[in-house]
């Protein structure tokens, strides 16, 4: 209790946090006064040693981690709980959405999904509304989102069809250059025209957004009603993820004696089971303990459905894991640079996928009764371990080798995988080159594609964006308006992300300190 | 005896050329992401060349590479490419190789969607361009200078063939862009650039013209030293060049 008091005192007296940021962190801290959901001693030990990790979601989860309300349904029907009738014009629709966003919970306390905005708003974009009118309205809406929900995990989706909304969003993005909201463009090889992808690429040059996803692959895993939210989490609309737990493969490898093959049959299954046990305990706490889905208005109005949820099973530290195991076997290849090591990495991830796909979890109908596999892109506290299945920062091979190392993993991660590719300034004069690479990445079975321009003001941390000028301001003054900027500052300090030419590391959890 | 005569030409994949280097991904050698083949040897001797090691003609088997070997290098990159570009040196000095490479790419089931571009100094004659025409999707031509005297001083050769190539390729609809290398104090006088712009616009009013500032990196020492133009000098050069709808881009 004394420690809790100390942490609460540090929080309330922290001059670098805004009132709102203190309030949200205090709420998270309070659940730590409650007992942790019951775990086996082995699971508890693995959690304490951080071989497995609960993303510091707290001891008693009282919201699902990622919620994807069905905004199309909401806007068609209106909201009873919030006393909002169905809007009949664009202005009312935008006001409706802002009201709704303010009432959508998540682990960050801000909504991680703002809808597939083109589909949600298209019915209100009549011929009488000119492109200038549209830009003016979306610009105002964009500023409202950034100032009301100052968190870079706030995310919306567009595409795969072309639309006036999507074009307007890109124009507004390029003119405002905000880090919020984060954006995904769904890309279909047939439906999405090259010049829309190119418009997206030009927007990346200005703002680091959007992120691109392989639409047919996502539809194959989740059906038509899916979205990418927060950073690189692909989930069902009208559903989401109860929780995210993750396995540190490097720590697992450090606890392994024996050959690489033996790791796959002994150590790995043991830790996969402990990770699943942690997920199960947390899901039960949310569903059976706190009764989230029985009580929340989104569920009561049919805008989310527990049957469209699952848990996310994350892995990270693949690079260190396979390098260590190869050393055990007397082979000195490095992940990203050696065919044998790369092939073993694919085998290892396939093995994790197999294990996760036969470990039933309660209340995970969204995943057919199993967790979704996720290549977890790190948090600000990670040290000396590489995010997800990425190649370590600064050790990336040339772009083609980088793409071909990562591509075979992507189909295995239904709920997302984040590799970030870096391109130099010359790309700006030839955006079609990036369109070719994005098309190629999806042709090769990649699921997610994000790239950064080395010279960009925007830095992707794990998947979310911060402005370099905001990082500099934290270093100078210790405070920031966006809550995600604090996480980014920690990640930047620990990983020197900006030095390596802008990649990223940690993400979407509350800072437990 | 067979009723048909055997084709006297070798199979395209067995043709060899002198290849200085290849680059898997390039975004500065034509539209989109391209695989680039740099061929060894050039018939111009440009003072400002940033790849002077590719000027000498190759001898013996050093650099000798077959079309088949190049195809194998392209394959792993193919999904991510918009096309291939041959550059140099001066690619068209090895016309047999370029023709065979493009023919082989277009006949290959995996590679046939890739476009085939030539990056050239424009010195090739009509008959040569005619040979490439069936297999070439686009060309980028360097124009070192519109004034023949200055062109000779910069390259050692007349520009008559270059101007003719530009006109002919534009007429065929395969001229992707003309590159003008700006060497401050040498080829950037206001009146010269105005005449250049007027001539380019007379060939194609909407021609894409890349205005490239000389960069000392890679170039040979020269007396007096060649200097890189400032951003201001390049902007002025582009302004002098601008005629009507010319599509100018400063690099």
Structure overview:
The complex is a heterodimer of chains A (513) and B (251). Chain A is of the alpha/beta class and 513 residues long. Chain A is built from 20 helices and 14 strands. In chain A, strands 1, 2, 8, 9 and 10 form a five-stranded mixed β-sheet that branches. Chain A has a five-stranded mixed β-sheet with strand order 3-4-5-12-11. The longest helix of chain A has 30 residues. Chain B has 251 residues and is α/β, with parallel strands linked by helices. A nine-stranded mixed β-sheet of chain B has the order 3-1-2-4-5-6-7-8-9. Chains A and B meet through helix 17 and helix 18 of A and loops of B.
Keywords:
heterodimer, A: 513 residues, alpha/beta, five-stranded mixed β-sheet, 20 helices, 45% helix, 13% strand, disordered C terminus, B: 251 residues, TIM Barrel, nine-stranded mixed β-sheet, 7 helices, 29% helix, 22% strand
CATH class of the domain at 12-179 in chain B: Alpha Beta
Helix amount of chain B: 25-40%
The largest beta-sheet of chain B arranges its strands as: 3-1-2-4-5-6-7-8-9
Low-pLDDT segments, ≥5 res of chain A:
495-513
> How would you state the average pLDDT of chain B, rounded?
93
By CATH, the architecture of the domain at 12-179 in chain B is named Alpha-Beta Barrel
Q: Given the structure, what is the number of helices of chain A?
A: 20
Query: Number of helical segments of chain B?
Result: 7
Largest sheet of chain B: 9 strands, mixed
CATH superfamily of the domain at 12-179 in chain B: Aldolase class I
Number of strands of chain A: 14
- Rg of chain B, rounded, reads 19 Å
How much helicity do the residues of chain A have? 40-55%
How much of the polypeptide of chain B forms β-strand, as a percent range?
15-25%
Gyration radius from CA atoms of chain A, angstroms: 22 Å
Task: Tell me, briefly, the overall form of chain B.
Answer: globular
Can you write the helix and strand succession of chain B as a string?
Answer: EEEHEHEHEHHEHEHE
